[in-house]
Amino acid sequence: MISESNIAASVKYGKYVGRRDLIGLYALLITAMLIPIVTIAVVISSREGLMVLESKIVITLILINTFALFLICVAVSLLLYHKRNIKEVQKWKQDAVVLKASVYRLDLLSPVYAPYQIAVRFYINGVKKEQTQRPNKFLGYHKMLVKYVGKQISIAYSPKYDQVIILRQGARK
Q1: Sign for the pseudo-dihedral over CA of 140, 145, 147, 150
Q2: Is the pTM of the predicted complex or chain greater than 0.85?
Q3: Cα separation of 92 and 106, whole Å?
Q4: Which of 149, 146, 152 is nearest to 170 (CA)?
Q5: Dihedral sign (CA 57, 62, 66, 72)
Q6: How much is the pLDDT for 30?
Q7: What pLDDT is stored for residue 173 in this prediction?
Q8: How many helices (H) and strands (E) does the chain have?
Q9: Is 114 helix (H, G, I), strand (E, B) or coil?
Q10: In the beta sheet, which residues pair with residue 48?
Q11: How many Cβ atoms are within 10 Å of 114's Cβ, its own excluded?
Q12: What is d(CA 44, CA 38) in angstroms, rounded to the nearest whole number?
């Protein structure tokens, strides 16, 4: 079985977000959630007469809380997106076979393809297979995969799901 620490990316989702990245997203979420709590404490302190809220402070608190709300929305949506991707990749690696593959950019071969679109070509049981990257709905193509272009890389191919997992270079099963 392929270890999670050996997964670098997938052709479908791009960079694989691991445990360390998720911890960073949770830290961002918790920090952003603390801002409204601190604001409530400041408002309660001013109502008790411990401090005076001037108009500049009120405007600053409103702006900071608006930004915190934005950060909360971004962190929650990224966490949901990446956790779903992690769950799918975990399914793919159940029946994955480790193979060697070559990576190339399609846009350099023909102007029909979008910029930075890549393909992974490999052989499984003597049959040539190719997995072409599809664009992300919001971000377009995962440009981080371009660093593999022109190289022989190790991949894990899931025949059941027809998906390619790109392994970290030098990683073992």
Answers
A1: negative
A2: no
A3: 25
A4: 152
A5: positive
A6: 97
A7: 46
A8: 2, 7
A9: coil
A10: none
A11: 12
A12: 10
